Amino acid sequence: MIFFTLILIIYPTLCLGKINHFETHEGGSIKVGSVVSWKYDDDGKDKIAKQVIDAVDLQKKSITWKVIGGDLLELYNSFTIITSCDKQWTTWTFVYEKKIEETPEPLVLLGFALDLTKDIEGHLLKK
């Protein structure tokens, strides 16, 4: 769970070019019902995502983030991100429903998640 705690605590300061602002609106920590918002760079464009933590499974080291506002909901009816860790592996799962069939797959967001994972890994390996 340290990986995702780092996201909430230090990631906004690790990579200012990717995450421009992070704010906790409700809850204050990683727990079900906490609401957070991100301002992030998506392929050169400023984007906003507001999410509620829908589920936390400490045994599976998993957090489910449900998007409740922001740019993603312009393209998708629903968008949920499930993050999990297993030993040295981190998994990102995107569960979404497109508004129209022509809506692109969220490949840029997947690249963003990969970059985020690499940045945190690099930070942890320095310690």
UniProtKB/TrEMBL annotation:
<dbReference type="InterPro" id="IPR051761">
    <property type="entry name" value="MLP-like_ligand-binding"/>
</dbReference>
<protein>
    <submittedName>
        <fullName>Sn-1 protein</fullName>
    </submittedName>
</protein>
<feature type="domain" description="Bet v I/Major latex protein">
    <location>
        <begin position="14"/>
        <end position="127"/>
    </location>
</feature>
<feature type="signal peptide">
    <location>
        <begin position="1"/>
        <end position="17"/>
    </location>
</feature>
<dbReference type="InterPro" id="IPR023393">
    <property type="entry name" value="START-like_dom_sf"/>
</dbReference>
<dbReference type="GO" id="GO:0006952">
    <property type="term" value="P:defense response"/>
</dbReference>
<keyword id="KW-0732">Signal</keyword>
<dbReference type="InterPro" id="IPR000916">
    <property type="entry name" value="Bet_v_I/MLP"/>
</dbReference>
<dbReference type="Pfam" id="PF00407">
    <property type="entry name" value="Bet_v_1"/>
</dbReference>
